Amino acid sequence: MHYDHNAFCINNTFYTYYEFSKIVSMIRSVIHDTIDDTEKLIGLVTNDDIETYASIIALWLEGKAYVPVNPETPLERNIKIFELTETKYVIDSSEVSLYKYHKVISSKKRVETEIDLEPKKTSDDQLAYILFTSGTTGTPKGVPITYGNVNGLVSAVEKDTAFNLVSSDKCLQMFELTFDFSVVAYLFPLLHGSCIYTIPKNAIKYFYIFKLINEQKLTVLTMVPSIINYLRPYFDEINAPDVRYCSFGGGALHADIASEWSDCIPNCKIFNYYGPTEYTVYSGYYPYDKDANHKSHNGILSIGVPLYDVEYMVVNEENQEVPTGVSGELCLAGCQLTPGYWRNKERNDYAFFSKKVGEEDRRYYKTGDLCFKDEEGDFMYVGRADFQVKIRGYRVELSEIEFHAKAVSEKINIVAIDILNTLGNSELGLAIESEEFDTDAMFEYMKTKMPAYMIPTHVRFIKELPHSVNGKIDRKALKKLFKTTNN
């Protein structure tokens, strides 16, 4: 244990591993004395403070799972998540907790105790966390991840010698704790005694990252691709020779901006990671080398090859494997695979299937991503098979946005689409089949139902929605209409 090393830098305040261990142990003591051992799913309000991170570790040491909710997300949605998981206890470091109908444990409460980091014995099938993503009917969709899944992730990454953290590393943690990439951003630095630098919730994210890189000399960056789109105007001002590793995920990484970004971090290895929430963050990656011939398809970098003990299979609509070079839906199998969506049989029946491999019935997850494998074994990303999109790294169901928009104007046809802004980032638009009207009430309602990243930023009123020859909404035509308007 690197007790004298810094573990966290949160809003310009440093905490050593000794201080962090003390806070973990204090919170663990309160959990042990307050929560019955049979209560395994514990709510966590994800404030950007040392108590929130310590609560995660304390819960894991006690063999429990955290169910995170963002305090900036509408309260109704967060309470719905706790109802779905039958969560009775909520750990909250806020000065005043909004969760008055739950048993709230203040993680700021200090109970002097000895440091105790010895974990309780847990089985691989016990849950470590449940993350809720956008759902098609307006109800958030839970993805439970087990301790076995997390151990599989750690084993897969640790077996890859291309990525090795050390205790002197300074690591960026830019993700909200309800987003699955946060797990790798805090877990691997803690396992290696590195220091984690977080982003205050009220900060302009890309500007704060720029500041940390320059002032704190960060060495490890884990980011979504959209961040460097925002940083692009400042590339001429960024020279960060201290950065050793830069990992991307949560969206398509375009080859042109990767090349420009690599000039800003001249001594860095860049990895384009791939993996859905359902497969415990990472399932594979592609190492980008600006001096070599990198692989891309339609300008998007390859997602590379699977990690250790991860199986990729590209299938057709009948779930039959397709030949090399043929596009299909990418499916994943292995020990990092979630046991299934939380109490959602219909979605599980759709998203998972079993296939006989030798004597074994192997379970696969259908990612919804269209890919093909090239002759050298690298996987190339083609696009989404459905209408899920990535906004700021978060996966969003367009149908959920439509569901809430139509709640105010039920008789009007409304279609949500994703469009690219001038920076190359995805934004959300609403196409409304109607004469123009005041949308204030619609947007105020949506803000009470969905987090900020799911609120559309563009609206277009049209006389008639375009349709394809088979009668479906022509979303490509709609995107062209928005592009014309934005120009």
Helix proportion = 25-40%
Largest sheet: 5 strands, mixed
Mean pLDDT: 92
Count of β-strands: 27
Summarize the structure in words.
- The protein is an alpha/beta fold and 487 residues long.
- The protein contains twelve helices and 27 strands.
- A five-stranded mixed β-sheet has the order 11-12-13-14-17, covered by helices on one side.
- Helix 1 packs across helix 2.
- It is globular.
- The termini are far apart.
- The model has no long low-confidence stretch (mean pLDDT 92).
Task: Furnish the topology, listing elements before pairings.
Elements: E1 6-10, E2 13-16, H1 17-34, E3 41-45, H2 50-61, E4 65-69, H3 75-84, E5 89-92, E6 103-106, E7 127-133, E8 141-146, H4 147-158, E9 170-173, H5 181-191, E10 195-198, H6 205-215, E11 220-223, H7 225-231, E12 245-248, H8 255-264, E13 269-274, E14 284-288, E15 296-297, E16 300-301, E17 305-306, E18 310-315, E19 328-334, H9 345-351, E20 352-357, E21 360-373, E22 379-384, E23 388-391, E24 394-397, H10 398-406, E25 414-420, E26 426-433, H11 440-449, E27 458-462, H12 475-486
Task: Name some characteristics of this structure.
single chain; 487 residues; 12 helices
Q: What's a concise summary of this model?
A:
It contains 12 helices and 27 strands. A hairpin with a 5-residue loop joins strand 25 (414-420) and strand 26 (426-433).
